[in-house]
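Project standup — Tuesday

K.O.: blocked on the structure for the chain from last sprint. Re-posting the sequence here as requested.
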Amino acid sequence: MNLSAKDLPELQSELSEQLGQVEELLLESVQGSGDLVDPLTSHLAKAGGKRMRPLLVALCGTLGPNPEPEKLVQAATAVELTHLATLYHDDVMDDAPSRRGVNSAHIEWDNNRAILAGDVLFARASRLVAALGAEAVDFHAKTFERLCLGQLNETFGPQGGEDRVEFYLQVLADKTGSLVAAAASFGALYSGASDEVREAVALYGDRVGVAFQIADDILDLVSSAEVSGKTPGTDLREGVDTLPVLLLRRQAAEGKGDAEVARILDALAGDLSADEDLAQVVSAITNHPVMAQTRQLARDWVDKAIDALAPVPDGEAKDALVLFANSMIDRVA
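H.V.: unblocked you, prediction finished:
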């Protein structure tokens, strides 16, 4: 997740230095357990990633009058370690073959080791948070609880007459928005910002997280394998209903779907193991108006995130947060 020096002329050097320190502490934190364990626990960290959450900690760390650089680095690293831990677990639950252009940990080492590696990373995140004090420990625990409940609720699915699209958006908020909100909140806390500003950026982060995941749903369909590291439509093949599909199902349930919607849903119910069959369904969805509707929903969530920044004083830091939010959907424009 890059914001250029042109976008942030005064913040860029400060952010670069802090993010470099986060990267050093992150790579140190995913190692240190010996030759058998280190390759596993460092697998995804070394594979890359956007480092969106550490960047948000750094940005919000400029909002207050008394930034604490060491605590900002520790908090940013802890949030990223927590995120990494969830990726190990998610890939096991989803039986995902790859992540960040490399084989998933459970493919390389098996399910048990991948799960335990995620546990180790969460333990190391917890140790970093413990050094920040009781308030940070409580906040981090509540964030992780919400994240896990979001994942758990997803396994149960919507109940009774619950709207599937609204349920899905709430799952995105709980699974992704919660940790993005934590990143923003930690940054504001260790900048000395007011409680009002901290609450504002937490709400902002929650909404940015939803927009980010909606954009990911779009990218699953439109990104090439070279860019995303996975075959377009991988979620469809795995039977995962992402937002475009849920919107199509809603149209059909409300009697608003046309023949093309029916054809797409029929295809999704079939066997998509062949690349040609998958490519046909992906093409049908990407050429359907539902993609414009999905992009608009991502835009709406970004706009709501920016609206949440109203209590934040005007300045370069706030401008940077607006740019950060817009970057969530610039990649699918």
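K.O.: great, moving the ticket to review. The longest strand covers residues 98-99. Strands lie at 98-99, 102-103.
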